[in-house]
Design a protein that fits this description.
By secondary structure, this protein is an alpha/beta fold. It has one domain (about 5-155, about 185-285, about 300-335): Rossmann fold, CATH 3.40.50.720. The chain has 14 helices and 13 strands. It has a seven-stranded parallel β-sheet with strand order 5-4-3-6-11-12-13, with helices on both faces. A two-stranded antiparallel sheet has the order 1-2. It has a two-stranded antiparallel sheet with strand order 7-8. α2 (about 50-65) links the parallel β3 (about 45) and β4. The longest helix is centred in the middle third of the chain and has 20 residues, at about 240-260. It binds 1,4-dihydronicotinamide adenine dinucleotide. 1,4-dihydronicotinamide adenine dinucleotide binds near residues 54, 73, 74 and 224. One of its GO terms (molecular function) is NAD binding.
Length: about 400
């Protein structure tokens, strides 16, 4: 079928298999253009492996370190006449490339928050890999059913304590407007922590430790975000920030629990990037379009794959101590948070409106990245051609 984008706000209902495949090949080529990661991981589990930072982590492990990878994700398979989700096609493309390169790669599609998917993943690792030496936790989800209580929780993106009013942009039309978001209730804060906090990460690591599938010296990393004062009321000091505080505190607990096997739990604070998760957060798209413009002008712009390659090579596997901030976090958002970059974004923010954004922001870059997430507007792909929407994931465990 010929697949066209069907956009509804910050989501695209269709995805293009050939565009997703090209995106994955481009990321693999980037990793291959870098030198192999010395002392990199050998057997890796990526939870949230199909898009964004998780996919980049899987690609970096496999093609930068020849690692065997198991990917867990929650994606929609295609059916005749009905394209699957982007993460499905990304994984199909990744596994094809990995298998062609002789690398072990298998996937589990289902709810990572459930006991069932944890058990299935652990059984697979036990049977086929024995143990893993790296566990990446890269889930971004709007909801979670807690397996202990059976209660379903929905996360919200809201400020805490007071109404937050600021500028935002509709990244499809370029219209800048003001939005006001009401503060979250205590219940909404607690629900967001249930979904995006660290409890599920700890459950994964506990279950894996119990099953003896974590290698001696195992490293586990979860991704966090901080960002500037401009966005902190809606992000870091809002509901999602509370969840990230919880995730970061959980790293210390997991770290303690891994001491017996000489393991480590770490947080990596990553850069703001266009992903399915971040497009849904008000204010962030305007910030990102000004940030992209500034970082591109400085020659320091990075996408997910560049961020994760640098995280692996210069932080996790740098052959020496892993550098962290005073709260024990790895900072790979260092270029985003550079004082000169933030000063420039602040200056641009003050004058940003619908008219000025055309020249002071990188809305085209934002929009292009957004379309690319779903395999559209990828250079070299013929979107008028008939493509087979029913693509299999070769390493999918049924
Ligand atoms: P994303 O939306 O691209 O990826 C989310 C992944 O989680 C996908 O693989 C998806 O299939 C999987 N997933 C969602 N719900 C699931 C479930 N119930 N069971 C199994 N898999 C599920 O998100 P992104 O942006 O890569 O985020 C990953 C992490 O990085 C998050 O913790 C996010 O807060 C963090 N981060 C994101 C930044 C950004 O600007 N995008 C910046 C810094 C950190």
């Amino acid at each position: 079928m010929v697949i066209e984008p069907k956009i509804r706000g910050f989501i695209c209902l269709t995805a293009h298999p050939a565009g997703c495949e090209q995106n994955v090949i481009n990321q693999i080529n980037y990793i291959k253009s870098k030198k192999a990661i010395d002392g990199g991981p050998a057997k890796v589990l990526v939870i949230g492996a199909s898009t964004g930072f998780g996919l980049a982590s899987r690609i970096t492990s496999a093609f930068g370190s020849d690692a065997a990878t198991v990917g867990v994700y929650f994606e929609k398979p295609p059916a005749p006449g009905k394209p699957g989700s982007a993460g499905w096609y990304n994984t199909a493309a990744f596994e094809k490339q990995a298998h062609d390169a002789g690398l072990y790669a298998k996937s589990i599609n289902g709810d990572a928050f459930s006991d069932e998917i944890k058990e299935k993943t652990i059984a697979l690792i036990k049977k086929e890999l024995g143990q893993v030496d790296l566990v990446i936790y890269s889930l971004a989800s709007p909801r979670r059913t807690n397996p202990k209580t059976g209660v379903a929780h929905n996360s919200v993106i809201k400020p805490i304590g007071e109404v937050f009013t600021n500028k935002t942009v509709d990244f499809h039309t370029g219209v800048v407007s003001e939005i006001s978001i009401n503060p979250a209730t205590e219940e909404e804060i607690a629900n967001t922590v249930e979904v995006m906090g660290g409890e599920d990460w700890a459950m994964w690591i506990d279950a894996m430790k119990e099953a003896n599938v974590l290698a001696n010296g195992v490293v586990t990393v979860a991704y966090s975000y901080i960002g500037p004062a401009l966005t902190e009321k809606v992000y870091r000091k809002g509901t999602i920030g509370r969840a990230k505080d919880h995730l970061e505190a959980t790293a210390f607990e997991i770290n303690d629990s891994l001491k017996a096997i000489d393991g480590k739990a770490l947080i990596s604070v990553n850069k703001a990037l266009v992903t399915q998760a971040s497009s849904a957060i008000p204010v962030i798209p305007l910030y990102i379009s000004l940030l992209y413009k500034t970082m591109k002008a400085e020659g320091i712009h990075e996408g997910c794959i560049e961020q994760i390659q640098r995280l692996f090579e210069q932080r996790l596997y740098n052959g020496s101590t892993i550098p962290t901030d005073d709260k024990g976090r790895i900072r790979i958002d260092d270029w985003e948070m550079r004082p000169d970059v933030q000063a420039k974004v602040d200056e641009l923010w003050k004058i940003a409106d619908t008219e000025s954004l055309k020249s002071i922001g990188d809305l085209a870059g934002y929009h292009g990245d957004f379309m690319n997430l779903f395999g559209f507007e990828v250079p070299g792909v013929d979107y008028t051609a008939d493509v087979n929407e029913v693509v299999e994931v070769s390493g999918l465990v049924s």
